[in-house]
Write a structure and sequence with these properties.
globular, 4-stranded antiparallel beta sheet, 10 strands, mainly beta
Length: about 130
């Protein structure tokens, strides 16, 4: 068993700070989730029914291009204007070892990030590990 993860770049392209949120979840084929964990696997509207996401967590792994660090404002974590961060989203439960990088997909699906409540796939580079 192993723990799957993917990385993506999150950029605030506005001229003002914004709330730091992690919009992407990691999806994998249901067939790669061990049977004992499948009840934790969550399908989402607009995402193929053969794919699901396990409980996961996201964290910043790097600040890019001299970006300033996130900061607190009234208890919220804010992303400075123009900042770019490398974010790692990792599942909290093990998956089968035969899961390959090509099986993994990043989707944005939460209603606060999509207008039609359907998952939007984020393109991953095909020549880079993810």
């Amino acid at each position: 068993m192993s723990y799957a993860y993917a990385e993506y770049v999150l950029t605030n392209n506005q001229r003002r700070p914004v709330l730091l949120q992690f919009p992407a979840d990691l999806f994998m084929p249901l067939s790669t989730v061990p049977k004992e964990s499948r009840d934790r696997c969550m399908p989402q509207p607009g995402i193929p029914s053969s794919m699901c996401t396990l409980p996961n967590h996201s964290r910043l792994t790097a600040r890019l291009n001299g970006s300033k660090a996130p900061f607190k404002d009234s208890g919220d974590t804010m992303m400075p204007a123009g900042a770019s961060y490398l974010v790692r989203v990792a599942v909290d439960m093990p998956v089968k070892n035969d899961l390959s990088a090509d099986d993994l997909k990043l989707y944005v699906w939460e209603a606060r990030f999509t207008s039609d409540r359907k998952g939007i796939e984020l393109a991953l580079p095909t020549d880079q590990p993810h």
